[in-house]
Amino acid sequence: MKPVLAVERLEKRYGVKTVVDQVSFTAAAGECLGIIGPNGAGKTTLFNLLDGCVAPNAGRVMLDDVDITHLPQYRRARRGIGRAFQIPRPFAGLTVFENVLAGVVHGADRSTAPQRRAIEILEAVGLAHKRDLLAGGLPLLDRKRLELAKAMSVGTRLLLLDEVAGGLTEHEVHQLVDIVNALKRDHAVIWIEHIAHALMAAADRIMVLHFGAKLVEGPPADVMASAIVQEVYLGISVDVAADR
Amino acid sequence: MKLSRGQMMVDPRAILPVVAIAVGLSAGALVLPIDRRLAMEMLLVFAMAQGWNLLCGYTGLLSFGHHAFVGLGAYALILTVNALGISPYLSLGASALVCVLVALVMVLLLHRMRDAYFSIGIWVLADSLRLLFGQWEWAGSSRGVVLDASAIDPAAFADNVFWLALALALTTQIGTYVLLRSRIGLALMAIRDNENGAASVGIAVARNRLAAFVISAAICGLAGGLYYLSVLYVDPSGGFDIDWQIKILFIVMVGGAGTLEGPVLGTLIYFGLRELFRDAGDLYLIFQGATAMIVMLLAPNGIWGSIQARTNWRLFSIRWTPGPQKPGE
After folding, report:
1. Which of A208, A231, B1, B102 has the CA that lies 20 to 30 A from B160?
2. For residues A75 and A84, is the Cβ–Cβ distance under 8 A?
3. Domain match, B196 and B278 both
């Protein structure tokens, strides 16, 4: 299948420190690529390079065969990249509905009825009944849902999910996995997550980053079982680390 | 792109601008024979405050230098009338144009500054303009310039200026309302609330912020031009007086920043206090300061902001709603 996203030898340095080191991979519609790695492995920086927050020092980012390496963040969003940030970034003075509508009316897919689309998204993440509340007053879990909804509001091609399961209860994690599994039918999804069993349930491939470089990439079970991954996590088994 | 607003047959909010025009015009006709000067000043200061509110309350840029545009608007108007001999009403175009151009230059200098850095940066630029005009011989240096009296028709002049002030105030109020209810309004408020988050959902942050800045500059320029047209004279220490900015700040903060009703209320409070303590000299400034402090302590979002938080009243609602809730929700 033709990849939605193709990343070629992407590199980001801060001073002498290479934070993302010659990383290449692809992601196609209909699949979820999981990214794991210890803290400081460069996972979030990789997302910053993909969505355009930060400019790379070398390498290319291709979205649907178009080179977007030098496009600013808002133009990438308009091409269909949606991102859920690790720390939610709600528009506190706007309602939940307006938070999502803002993305729908500024994003890639502006042809359909925007208000209906915003409601659909809110229903998908389970926030439809809170649509008239101010986003600034939402509790943390709802902020996380809203963050996912905002990513969906523009992300018609590619969704970048940065630890969206962190802090959720077991039941909510299952709901989230269902949402991601539904989303990946027509999106390419890239998901950074520490909660290993959630990632195992949704990811079709897993990529491991370590000191900014790609360590391994492959089917989830193989990657999790590989000795090198166990070692990166300093001898702690991934499942034990996740179950804490 | 056209957005539909819910499924209601008639949106009651859609008739609000018409109501505002009707109320404004009838109030204008009533006030006209009594004290035109005060009413005119109120309308102009209100327009400045609402223009500034668009930038501060809805876009999140706290400017301490909008008196620059008041002075520029005044100078642009009087100098074009004197130099070209054209009608002062046409010269209002020059007030707006000069303010737009200077605002664009300011953006080049300030575009990386945020928060307090922006506030102080634009303040410095405004004061630099005051000093510049004070040294500019052709513009009358520190003595200022007098409008060429032959350019005006004294019989209708005062009435005309008053009606222009009313038109500016109404256009500002309705224009901001319409702008904020649009897709651009959503973008501006998203930028105010989270700049990076806004960019990540496809909002062109720099361009939208620039638009808000330029619009607010043009409104203050037009209001400044009209005000100094009515007094037929401007000098650097008056036109570029930071007191303009303080008035605006007081009105918006006391009334409620980020609400369209707040500046209306704030203007009434400001001029109410001023008239009440007109004969009290400096005591008036003490009352003004005390009012500002008390309001900030008791109602940090301004008086209208607090009313809105408690009652959810909105005369000019810019909220998006998806229409009536479906049964069972």
Report:
1. B102
2. no
3. no
